[in-house]
Hints:
Structural class: alpha/beta
Amino acid sequence: MKSWSHSQTRVMRICERRWFLSYGLGAKINSRDRFLREIAFLKKVKPSFMWRGDLVHGVIADVLQQARRGKTIPVDRASVLLEQRAKNQWLESMRRASSGDPRTSLQPEGPILMEHYYEALNNGLQLDEIISPARQQMMTLYKWIEHHGLLDEMRKTRDVWIEPSLFMPNSPGFSVNDVRFITKVDLALISSGFFRIYDWKTSLEPRGEFHLSHEHRQASYYALWPYFEMNFPVENIEIKVVYAGGDNPKAHEARLVHQDIEDLIADAELIIEATREFLDVDKGFILEDFDWATSGKACQWCPFQQICQRELI
């Protein structure tokens, strides 16, 4: 398996289809193009630790959606929902990984676990190893949300975004030059004149000072959405990043200041330029430009794993 997880052929095909910053969006499981069918399948491949985070986020989103409608999902019911969803998706993942069929009858949006798809990565992974920490993280976030009155606050305001769709004309984000950056927020709401954004993390809080962390940088980009798209003043944008990976929740606040905006936009421009250069068909990449991974586990951290070739070498 390549350390960047795709061969020359796949890189060139993606370039030809102009999938610059969001490759594979046109891939469908019923496409007439065999390559697009394969990409549609591989887009679902995901490491188990990322799937665990998706389970937690999904149940919390359900809790928030019901609260928005004036209903309450108690924490014990949320725990049951998480376990049911995990079992269904686990079984579907194994079925699709072995059959090569990305379609599913139970969970259309469910993943195919890398550990099921690449047998070399399995190492005896059991479902309980996913459910147990996921349940704990979900309960930690649930209690933090309840303790800080977010459920009541959501019922009082009209402007609420709960994991908004990424593929709609009004998806949250901002534009730099001719490229649209999408900000995948977990929860956002407008209350008392403030734009509040919440980001749930199932990991441990980062070591060192939070303002130097990757998560703080990420959260700063989230703030560009209300700043550019809704003309919210920076002093009225609040962001909380909540970590549920430890015994107790750890919340950190990120604030956007005016002098940061220029740096963030400059970084975004560099990302655009680097991506276009990498996906430039005229560069003439060859297979040897992509080194083999030293082990199968290295592929779990590869940013291009979703368009990976199946064989481990």
